[in-house]
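Researcher: Structure prediction, please.
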Amino acid sequence: MKRGEEAWLIQPRSRVALPLLILAALVSAGLVLYAAGSWALAAGFGATILTAAALLSWYQHLYPPQLSDRESTPDWTVARAAADASSMAIAVTDRAGRLVCASDLFGEWFPGYPTPPAVTADTALADSLATAARAAWRDGEARHEGMVQGALRLDVDVARTGRTEDYLLWRFTPVRQPSALDDVHRFLTGEAGRQLGEAGIMAAMIGGEGRIRAANGAFLLRAAGRIDANITGRDFAAHMRVDDKGRLFLAREEQGGLPLRLLQVPLKRAAQPNGSQASAQDGPMLLLLIDEPAGGGGTSALSYIETLLSLLPFGLAMADRDGRILFVNNAFARVAGLKSGEKPSYPGDLVVREDQAAVADAVRRFAVGPQMSGDIAVRMRDTPDDPIALSLAGVRGLGEAAVLLSLKDNSEESKLKRQVAQATKMQAIGQLAGGVAHDFNNILTAIIGHCDLMLMRHTPGDSDYDDIQQVKSNSNRAAGLTRQLLAFSRQQTLRPQILQLPDIVADVSTLLKRLLGENVKLDVTHGRNLGAVRADPGQMEQVIVNLAVNARDAMPEGGTVNIQTYAVPAARVREMRQQILPAGDYSALRVSDTGLGIPPDILAKIFEPFFTTKELGKGTGLGLSTVYGIVKQSGGYIFAESELGRGASFVIYLPVYAGADVEQPVEMKPAAPRTETWGTGTVLLVEDEDMVRAVAERALTRQGYKVLTANDGEQGLEVLGGGEQIDLLISDVVMPNMDGPAMVAQARRTHPHLPVLFMSGYAEEQLRKSIDIANVAFLPKPFSVNQLAEAARDALLTRPAAE
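Model: Predicted structure follows.
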């Protein structure tokens, strides 16, 4: 309750209390007059009481009673119960960004109850949700549409709420996807429904309650008398009648009408509240009606039914009581993978051996007894890895036909699900790899630094010199592995330039010829009119080398490695109908070989880190992972194509840089050679890792600097404000309590010209948003003692001379 509301509650009591106080003042004045006999004394006494009452009332209005802590604390148990009752994924966060309440459905969609916006591993999506949260704090509400969470597509609404508006309410609402009912509705009301009517077929779709949802023109004309009649929502049974012989007629045609044959096509299975199997009448249905042919025999009507089923876009087939297939339409044959003119004998012939018994049993159950429908999950013989739903419905009165079978073509849906699952897995692996590389870089910094310090005390020929060199060499190899992990997770430091792919291939061709050996031939071809791309030339050379070396290893007996560059205009991209590759202009690089090829089960895993098909000890499994990370971080796409026995190809698509024709090349100034790294002055070193702080302190002290240390940003500010002149600030970026950028932002207020050198195990690109500070240098971990000394010297040279 707000303060204004509390004051409003006090006002009714004030309206009653004021007349009582006036009456009390008059009575008191009368008593004083009676006792003392002085009008002046009585009047003064009454005025004093009225004045005190007025002051009390004024104080209550200014300082209304506050709510107790118990009353002001939200009852989150009630809020959680309300959220669960709403059947929505709801979460509530406070000003500090903590999750204070969430519904059970939120926990199902986001396991572990993560705190929004950190509900996704997608960095870009998390940034978008964080932006929406900031907008909600500012404007009161915000929205983000199209969030992908597994197989779900969600809209996110964020609203500021609470008694003092100090909470954010997050609502995750699934986006309704088009269903089979929508397809049938469009089918009946469109051109296909009109063609059915011209063929003498009436069609209507009804809901589980028996009311009409859609109908074609033929049904409207005969059931309602007008082709434009609106009968949506009416009871279907009201338009039908049954005579004493059990024949079905349209109610409007009365005695002159023809008997009708009704075919029911269940559109989906409905589940009963008790979990039992639903009957055919319990869910939405497509009803098809045709005039009964002369004689009324079910067998003669079968040809009409087959003609009808062949026109429908749904995969439908009919089987007899023994389970033999009588008819399949074209859509069913396409989904089942049947060749033209091929018709299997039994439905079990279409599925894998393990599912044949279940299919045969289901056909027998639906062929006898009461009419009912249902579906089972089966694995088709040609696509055993993707289970699909086989729907069955018992039909009567169609001669030999006893069961209607239906298959849904969900190949595209399954493909999209696999792509989403693969993308999610690669994203998660990338996040893990980046985190491992960061922690590993801190350890390697300490190892390499201590090796450098020990080498300063030893000379070549000492007994320990070679051992220390070996430790440092292995540490540098480990640092190379961490760089590959960062490349895969798209967290490495890139130096992009405007370049042409043929130039990169030409620069690395000489090296490739030496790497490939004498048994492997290198064939290079370039297309015309390639657009310029924006990428790191050194990283692109690494991509080409890694792909060429993999191609060489796939041809143990020798062969040919082909490297092609060519332009891919937007029109060709649209013709490719590639779901992942957006339409646009690209420059492509293809590296192919004539080797053994890659099996399909391995092809989906080749970009995962540490996955290798080489013998133990002959590969790290990071070559293709590095390629994948570099290409994705450069804004490109990579696809692997292979056929067993005919080699493999890796195709890279890099977007053409739109500003390549107007951007002037940046003149690179050659760095002046500097070998002297000794320096003077006071350095403030802020690092939360003890081992890194210790080795950096010793290294800088040996270079002549006076070093002051701090464990985090807060201690760093205390040292900076201690009165001693600080010439250089060296700080880690990610630290507990207060990170490096936050500390530097405060330090610059009192020391605007203080040189700053950031160091981190994360890449500069990844930290650029969080740093967002001008005139700072960056040193990636792991670094050697000499690299730290050079970085400190260069940072001090940027200090203004006037300071």
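Model: Residues 761 and 781 are 5 Å apart (CA to CA).
Researcher: Thanks, that helps.
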